[in-house]
């Protein structure tokens, strides 16, 4: 007999990188199920506007995921205004692309700060609240890039592998505590973070709403590994059995080298925001995608790609991590995700 899905009505959910893209779509999907949602974003005013548009008492707060004090203040305010935290969705992330030897050290550090340290801070701060209550659900947005490799995405792929390893280790360590853990791994999602890039052959590019529904399903079922689309699970498992040369051939056949030939004109707005975030560090003007996976493309063999993003009103600590918008949007971004 199939299990009855868990009710999300009244659940208090915090989403990083929630002002746009996957974060915003996830907030909307959870609100539709009766959850009480707060979105945090490096762009506080945009978070506030998104929260107002979503309605249903959604909070939009300023959040810098690379700053532990900012993250703690964000969660404190969520609990003060909405009640004890039930779910944290670590979705903020950025995805600069380019040749490895041309990548600046500042860009690499920024990626690691947002995509890895941001998830570590959020996971620790959420678990500190969940474990004593013996309940709660931690959702980390990684990418299928965390299960493979990809040219012109080396550091990004490394950060997603880190999130995959971190989340699996958390799952093992906190088993039996009453806390659920989910790892969401999309391919490249149709957000600004993935702008200017071609879809993988044979795989339809998911919309932010597709990832949002996958996150909702994970919360309702307690599922740990979540792939978007679902068939990426079987595809990655099958290709893992092949010799390295065959895996690489499959990846190339699927267009896993898309990162080596981006349309820089269509990607210009996102690239400009990435440049500002790298140069300014905590400058709110820039906003890469959060979480899309995310963010999160990658073919089974040698591909990689996309991160994650988010929504809501602003009011908390500093700024420095962000959300991921749809390619039609003109503002910043930061992908589970």
What can you tell me about this protein's structure?
With 337 residues, this protein is of the alpha/beta class. It has one domain (12-280): NAD(P)-binding Rossmann-like Domain (Rossmann fold), CATH 3.40.50. Helix content is 39%, strand content 10%. The protein is built from nine helices and seven strands. Strands 3-2-1-4-5-6-7 form a seven-stranded parallel β-sheet, sandwiched between helices. Helix 6 (208-221) links the parallel strand 6 and strand 7 (225-228). Helix 1 (21-32) packs across helix 6 (208-221), helix 3 packs parallel to helix 4 and helix 4 packs parallel to helix 5 (154-173). The radius of gyration is 18 Å and the shape is globular. The two termini are 30 Å apart.
In the CATH hierarchy, what is the architecture at level 2? 3-Layer(aba) Sandwich
Relative helix content: 25-40%
User: H/E element string?
Assistant: EHEHEHEHEHEHEHHH
Low-confidence region ranges: 282-337
Q: Which structural class do you get from the secondary structure elements?
A: alpha/beta
In CATH, what is the homologous superfamily? NAD(P)-binding Rossmann-like Domain
Number of domains in the coordinates? Answer: 1
Subunit arrangement of the protein: single chain
């Amino acid at each position: 007999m199939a299990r009855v899905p868990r009710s999300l009505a009244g659940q208090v959910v915090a989403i990083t990188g929630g002002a746009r893209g996957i974060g915003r779509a996830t907030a909307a999907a959870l609100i539709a199920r009766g959850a009480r949602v707060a979105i945090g974003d490096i762009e506080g005013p945009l978070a506030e506007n998104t929260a107002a548009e979503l309605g249903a008492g959604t909070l939009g707060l300023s959040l810098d995921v690379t700053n532990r004090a900012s993250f703690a203040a964000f969660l404190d305010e969520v609990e003060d205004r909405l009640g004890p935290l039930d779910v944290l969705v670590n979705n903020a992330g950025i995805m600069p692309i380019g040749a490895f030897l041309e990548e600046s050290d500042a860009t690499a550090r920024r990626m690691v700060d947002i995509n890895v340290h941001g998830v570590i801070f959020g996971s620790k701060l959420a678990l500190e609240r969940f474990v004593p209550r013996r309940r709660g659900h931690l959702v980390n947005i990684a990418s299928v890039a965390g299960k493979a490799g990809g040219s012109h995405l080396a550091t990004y792929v490394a950060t997603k592998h880190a999130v995959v390893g971190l989340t699996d280790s958390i799952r093992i360590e906190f088993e039996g505590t009453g806390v659920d853990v989910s790892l969401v791994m999309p391919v490249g999602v149709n957000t600004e973070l993935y702008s200017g890039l071609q879809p993988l052959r044979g795989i339809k590019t998911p919309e932010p709403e597709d990832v949002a529904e996958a996150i909702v399903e994970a919360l309702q079922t307690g599922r740990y590994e979540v792939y978007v689309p679902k068939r990426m699970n079987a595809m990655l498992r099958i290709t893992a059995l092949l010799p390295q040369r065959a895996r690489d051939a499959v990846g190339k056949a699927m267009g896993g080298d898309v990162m080596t030939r981006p349309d820089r004109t269509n990607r210009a707005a996102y690239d400009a925001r990435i440049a500002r975030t790298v140069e300014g560090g905590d400058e709110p003007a820039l906003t890469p995608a959060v979480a899309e996976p995310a963010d999160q493309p990658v073919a089974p063999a040698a591909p990689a790609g996309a991160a994650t993003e988010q929504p809501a009103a602003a009011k908390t600590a500093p700024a420095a991590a962000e959300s991921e918008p749809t390619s039609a949007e003109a503002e910043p971004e930061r992908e589970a995700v």
